[in-house]
């Protein structure tokens, strides 16, 4: 449990310190955000704000994770290494996308096909590797069984499992990416999701089949270490949010949003709570659905729109809502969704006893 505290506290500190240092470096190099001309006019004042702050999120969380293990003397697990590899992989894609936007001085980086294909490649590698590295009891980081709020009896073949994990990773990473459109919105919502994973990881460890003689115990490879990594990610987002809140001094960029989305899906998969992603990442799901609905209806209706603009947060901007108002209200929605997810997780355990 000490590892969770050390990891979270150090990550907040590192992120809080590293972020202004990165702001100065990026400002000197002229690395600023490109703004779409067809977006809300209020965003034009943000043009040139330093971006790629996700570098801090990745470094702060990973450094804190390893330092906490060094302090506590606890071994590093295969599950955490795999999730961090996924974070680095998706973060690299986001970095390339951000860099192309900056170098070309336009809001277009990698094409949609390029981003999706490379994301799918890293997700497939994560899925395949996760079926290996079994511990002494034979548990691998990723289960062959479909997971709801725990493993079910539905066994998936390797091909189906890899496709399913690709879907989860792409949905989560792009969901966070779409949410990252207002100051502090994505980072604030991500904090709540990662804190929920801390609670789930600690609970699964306490009710693990390896140490607890209870009905419906949890067969999860490294739940407590996932709580440590989740605490590090939550801390990194909290320290970054100090500088990312309105008016933002820096944006996380695609390097941050894709990495955070990959972390959310990766941790959910390893903790065997895949179906809970819809609740624990409820805000990201809602905003992603708004884009799907807008795009689908636009094509089917011959140019008509459901929302004034998608993603959903920009619809409310065009309705006249203030940016801070939207962010706070969306945070409330995210918190309610996370609470519902934790309620479903705990409720399933109560019913099973």
Flag low-confidence runs.
none
Note the overall shape.
globular
Q: For the record, give the distance between the C-alpha atoms at the N and C termini, rounded to a whole number.
A: 26 Å
Quote the beta fraction: under 5%
Radius of gyration: 20 Å
List keywords for this structure.
353 residues, mainly alpha, 12 helices, 67% helix, globular
What does it look like?
The chain is 67% helix and 2% strand. It has a two-stranded antiparallel ribbon. With 353 residues, it is mainly α. A hairpin with a 3-residue loop joins β1 and β2. The protein has one domain. The two termini are 26 Å apart.
Topology (elements, then pairings):
Layout: H1 2-29, H2 54-72, H3 78-104, H4 112-130, E1 145-147, E2 151-155, H5 158-179, H6 185-206, H7 223-244, H8 253-270, H9 277-280, H10 282-300, H11 312-318, H12 323-352
Antiparallel strand pairs: 1-2
